[in-house]
Structure formats: C-alpha cells, structure tokens
Amino acid sequence: MIESVEFKNFKVLRDATLPLSQVTLIVGPNGSGKTTAIDGLRAAAHPHSAFSELQSAGHHAGSDEPSVRLRWSEQFENAITTVKWDPGYAIFHRQRDGHSPLAPQMEPKINAHLNALRRYCLDAPAIAQPVILHPRLELTEQGGNLGGVLDQLRDQDQERFDSLNQELCRWIPEFDRVFFDTPESGYKRLLLRTRTGGHRIPASQLSQGTLLALAMLTLAYLPNPPTIACLEEPDRGIHPRLLRDVQEALYRLAHPESFGEKRPPVQVIATTHSPYMLDLFRDHPEEIVIASKHGMEARFERLSDRTDLDEILQDAHLGEAWYSGVLGGVPEKS
Amino acid sequence: MKVAILSESPADEAALQILVGGILGKPVDFADRPLRLRQGGWPSVHHLLPTVLKHLHYQTDTDALVVTVDSDNSPAHNVAVDREQCSGAGCRLCRLHQTVDRVQAKLKSGNRMRIRVAIGLAVPAIEAWYLCGIDQHATEAAMLRRLKSEHHVDVKNALKSQVYGTHRPGLVLETSKAVEAASRLAGSLDALSRHFPCGFGSLLSECRAW
Predict the structure, then answer these.
(1) Residues A207-264: pLDDT tens digits?
(2) Domain presence at residue A278
(3) Are B175 and B193 in contact (CB under 8 A)?
(4) What is the CATH number of the domain that holds A334?
C-alpha cells in the first residue's frame, strides 16, 4: 500500500502531501487538486507518458522540477520512491530513498504494483457501447468494454457472475440478470432483464445511473482488479440511497476478506463532491482527506487529524459540516 | 396494526421488525416504502422526525411509529431528573420525546387517531443489543463505562467486528446477522430490557402500552 504521496511543483500541487489509507475519499472544491493527485499517481506509474502532459501543463526547461514521492507501507519494506521529471531532457528518475537496501525482488514488485494502477472516470455512454470482442478485455477508464468484461466473467467464473447478478437485484431491484447479445459480427452487447415481464433492455436504453451502478458493481466483482483503483466521483449519477452500496463496492475492493473474497486487497482512492457520500464515512474519519485550495496552491488534510472533530459534529451531519465550510475544503470567496 | 420504522439502515429495520413483532405479539404490517435516515442517524432523526410525524399523520393510515437511533457519544439518559432537564443535558431519548410531544400537540386530529410512538436509543449502537445474552459485557451500564475511556467510534467499530467479524460489513451480512440476533432476542425481550433499561426498556414499555 502507498501510505502517502508528496507532490512538488506538480501542477496545482506545488508542495502538498496526500495521506492515504486502504480506502481514501478525497473531498474538496473544484480545482483543489483531487484529480491532479490521481494524475500524479498515474504519472509516477508511467513517468514517460506523463512528461508531455506536464509540458503541456506549463512545465518547461528552467522551471522547478515536478516530482512525486511515494511512501510505501511495511509490506513494501517502507520504501520511498521518487519520480522527478527533468524538463530539459525528458527523463525521469525513480529512486529509492532510505538507508538499508531493498530486497532484490522489491523493486520489480513495486513497479508491478504501480503499473497495475488504474483510474476510472465512469461515463454512461462509454459503458453502453457494444464491445469488440478480444480475449483479454479490461474495463477502460470510462467504463468501456463493460459488456465484454462481464461476458468474460460469465465464461470464466460463473459463481462470481451469479453473485454479481444477485447484488444487481439488490442495488437495482427492477432488473434481475445481465444478458448479452451479438448486434453484429465480432461485437457483444449488454442487456439487463427486467424482473417484471422478463424484457431484455439493451444498455443503450438503460438509465445513466443504472449503467454507472453496474460498472461500479462490476469493478467490485472483478476476480483480478487493479492493485490501485483511483475513482473519480463514483457516486455521480447514483441515487443517494444507493450510495451505501457504492461504499460497500469500494470496501469490497479494499477489504476483500470482509466479503469472503480471497484475492489481494485493492488500494482505493476516490474523489467526491457529495455530502451524502461523506456521511457514510462518519465512523472512518481516517479514510477522509479534505482538499483545500489556498490561492494557486492546493493542500490535503486527513479528517482524523482534526482534534476538534467531535466538537464540530455533535448534532450535524459530517456532509453538512463539510458543505458549510467549517471543515474546510469548500470554494474560496471570489 | 400498521407500524412505520424510522431507523438508520435497512439492516436495523429488519431487526426492529422482528423485535417489534415480538413485543406486540400480534400480526404487524410494516410500510412497503420504508422510511430511511441518512447515515450518521442522529442529525437526521433530529431534523426529520417532525416531517415524518406529519407525513404519517396526514398522509397515511399508519397506527404507530418506532424510532431508534444510536447514542454515539451523547450524554446518557438520567432517570433521576425530569425529561426537560435530561433533554437539556443532551439526552437523545428525551430530546426525541420532546420533539414528538411538541409536533403532535400541533397536529389536527379530526377523525385521525394520534400516532403512537415508541423510541429506542442503542448505547452506543444497535450491535450492543445484538450481543445481549452472548457477551456478559453487553449491557447499557457496561457500555456507558466503556465510553468513558474509549472513543465512541472505536467502541462502535469494535462492536461491529464482534457481531459481523469486520467493522466494514456489507449490507447482506449486516442484515442476516441483525435478523439472526433479533430472532434470538425476540424470545428474551425482558432480558434485553433488563440489560438495556433506558434504550431498549423504554421502547419495550412504550410498545406494550399501545
């Protein structure tokens, strides 16, 4: 697990440290560095491809070097890896800090862990698209390939596919099963069967919320999910009463043992603007990070580090307290 | 008899349906479209209870309402003082009762019978009730003592771990354990009332008075 990420000169994150848990929910106003933090993590995983993006964001020769430093947990020998982008030469350095050498297998282990990081910003039209079949389909950043991924799951792990269907019934009771058809040669299309009448509704006719919920659910039920899943607003488009289920999907990824799963845990980093979503984490303030913007700089603060939290909350919802501004992480006065 | 339940989660609601059924000892109809609170129930109960009471009174044929809420870190109920004083000290049970009295005093009755209300306060959370009869420390008094030395969130998470095997249970697991515990407790309601005299005892006696 990555315990924290230190950003220097990385876009709006001029000098900021993001503390991380197994599940981290980042809340804050627009432009407060939530997405940039996820971009930074992805850049640390794929430094070469991040270079041009950094150049287009205004980094150039002579300006301060952007860097992202990752502090790893004990499982990774408390390693510290730093990625720096030298603007003049388009090179990066990934180095290990600390005094004692890492075990020889640790460097590739860290690299493999980072390479399997995925970012998701689910988008209903992308989810609804028919899928060109391929032997090893993966959910795309927008949730594309969903039909193919579910089709693979049905073929390779029927029991897991059935469990997903059961959960789908609980989340969206008007549907009872995922089906597939072939709209044209080489393509697979997703359909949901209505509980009443047994009508098969193609993905393109489903509501946005249903598609987004199904993509979230699928992610949680993948047999081999990414090592680190960064989710942009997983609550978007979903009814507030379903947010508990969305939280449960995040926990299923991050704490598989709590759900009878035997796979390794996923480190989940999610962003939100939803006070309702925040309410669900009231008993886990260590999982909430408040992002704030100060002028042109952004900063992060773990909610459990606030010593006045009990006093502030009392009769208030956590989400309302955040919305009001007493916890920070709201837009500045214009 | 038609009863509405206002609780923090569908799992709590499933357990309360069994407990209320056990208390009343007669067939009970529960609302098809359940009332639900936002997570972190107390602020919701506090704000929503007047609206819920008015809705049930004017727009439904509901006979009774059961409300339960976690005590979290709120002051304990004090039987030695009157409701106003206890409410002023922050007791959630008395604050809710005051809200019910205040709202119901303003409702136009016409032919409508006043909705009977029973309120439960789980100290510090409903999982403490589920452990009654299993863990000898699962009593209101023991929980209140524990809350003096431990943060309420830590106590609640520890109780969840004890009941569900994890402090992040999924809703299916939470509901099945809640139903299992409530089914067991429905056969020993007086014991549950004895061990949780303020939080569950008051709910029991109010339901029995209907």
Answers:
(1) 999 999 999 999 999 999 999 999 999 999 999 889 999 999 999 999 999 999 999 9
(2) yes
(3) no
(4) 3.40.50
Output the pTM of the full model: 0.88
Can you tell me whether residue A94 is helix, strand or coil?
strand
How many other β-carbons are positioned within 10 Å of the β-carbon of residue A113?
20
Does a structural domain hold residue A156? no
A318 touches chain B (CB under 8 A): yes
Are residues A279 and B38, on separate chains, in Cβ contact within 8 Å?
Answer: yes
Instruction: Judge whether A278 is closer than 8 Å to chain B, CB to CB.
Output: no
User: CA-CA distance, B115 to B37, in Å (whole number)?
Assistant: 20
For chain B, domain boundaries? 2-208
Domain around A280: 1-116+266-334
Measured in angstroms, the CA of A283 and the nearest CA of chain B are apart by 6
DSSP, residue by residue, B31-42: -SS-EEPPSSHH
**Total of domains in chain A:** 1
Judge whether A228 and A113 are in contact, CB under 8 Å: yes
Residue A185 falls inside a structural domain: no
The H or E element that residue A166 is part of is helix A158-171
Chain A residue whose CA is closest to B74: A314
Burial category of A272 from C-beta neighbours within 10 Å (exposed 0-12, middle 13-18, buried 19 and up): buried
Residues 213-242 of A with CB under 8 A from B: 240-241
The DSSP code for A143 is: S
Is residue A179, in this structure, part of any structural domain at all? Answer: no
Note whether A259 contacts B: Cβ–Cβ < 8 A.
yes
Rounded-to-integer distance, Cα A161 and Cα A178, Å: 9
For A52, phi then psi, to 5°, come to: -65, -35
Rounded (5°) CA angle B112-B116-B119? 150
Task: Please give the ipTM for the structure prediction.
Answer: 0.80
